[in-house]
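Lay summary

Proteins are chains of building blocks that fold into shapes. Our project writes down both the chain and a compact code for its shape. Here are two examples, one after the other.
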Amino acid sequence: MPWIQLRINTTEDKAEQVSDMLQGWGAQAVSFVDAHDTPIYEPMPGEVIYWTNTVVVGLFDAEHPMDKVLSQLQKVAFFKNGVEYKLEQLEDKDWEREWMDNFHPIKFGRRLWVCPSWRDIPDPTAVNVMLDPGLAFGTGTHPTTALCMQWLDQHIQPEQTVVDFGCGSGILGIAALKLGAKRVVGIDIDPQAIEASTANAARNNVSGQIELYLPKDQPLLQADVVVANILAGPLAELSQVISAYVKPGGLLALSGILQSQAQSVMAAYQHEFSFEPVAEQEEWVRLSARKNGG
């Protein structure tokens, strides 16, 4: 069915109120967008992040009386000096199919491919990870994931144990197993990530080699390789937890970090690790290091 999208420019302190009003006026869905295209960070489950200048986007049925909605909008007290908005007619299409059609197999490094489960494998002789991301973060298209995949392709050795901290869709842990690792422990705060990782592990025939946990259940172990593709803030705050997973002489890769955040994250780990040169892609970086000792 066709839709009408109403975009309203507002501020972070008013965004929730505008959202509530749009839902009260008949919006089928409401979302929030940064007005100035600041990099988007993944929120914690249940958390909503607003930007200083936020665009609230309401989705309405095309038959909805939008003249009444706009009339009510003009009467809102905090828009007394005028409201900036935009009405858009959305094309009637299968948005899930549109997304699937634009998700293609991607190659990382010398031998590693990530292939959507609904597409043909380009190179059957390569190391192929079959992926259905579902609701969990991690498809390989984002620079932070790409940086980690390239690193895994270079560093994973047979028989290694790997910790994927913030496993999302399971893409990194499954790639490590396909590259020869013996065992992967995946940890994520989101139950949907555990479900997606479980399904993707089965799709790649590695269910017997991957263990998946919520943080409250995470085991005690030291691994040959630890990869954490989350966010700069949690990477710094959880540095002791993440560091403890790396055995002496083991390898660590950290991503989900903007260029401007690299030094502060590195500072949280440098007393235990020796860092390699920073790898960059677009505005994102990957930090890689070896733990002292061993």
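And here is the second example, written the same way.
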Amino acid sequence: MTGRALVICREAGRTYGRGPVAVVAVHGTNCQVDTRDRIAVMGPSGSGKSTLLHLMAGLEQPTSGEVVWPWYADGVGPKAWVRARAMAIGVVFQSPSLIATLDVAENTGLPLVLAGESADRARVRALAALDRVGVADLAGRLPDDISGGQAQRVAVARVLASRPRLVLADEPTGRLDRSTGRHVVDVLLAAVDEIGAALVVSTHDQAVGERLPTHWTMRDGRLHLHPDGGTP
């Protein structure tokens, strides 16, 4: 660990369904992400990587154990807490999920607007984030007019616009060719370095995993940590 804890999982697990049809996606997991950590969560599809990241982001609730964010101040109301978490934790999904009727700048600034920023302020921050990942020239284009690699860079910019403390990237290169995926990882690493955010990337691609110094492995919903940073 490299600094202050941003998220801690304490025996956190996630089961879908009940009884004989129950599926354990993540068994009781203990792990911690600190400031400026760079972690690759490796494992095949279906091993529980995405569910683990969703638990860390607060997008899903654990069915056992708990996930805590130590920077969260007790006494903050539920609505304020949801907004604070949304601004402090950014998630890059496998699919960019851009809204077809909004241009690139509007897509990038939308989470800020939803969090209460003015449209003008959100646009300023969106344009800065797009410039940070090298696609400022696409600001006025619609999603259907850009490539898959460009769309994923826009998705990275959308997360970075809020300058989060923690970025969780869930198979960010999973739908890209090797060259484009490598460039997206370059952009992502440079951007989190610039804003000083921690980064956790889930991937089944060994080449992506090797870009980060710390490796965790998911197998059948169980997380295996490697304190020396290496893979088994």
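What can we say about the second shape? The two ends are 19 Å apart (CA to CA).
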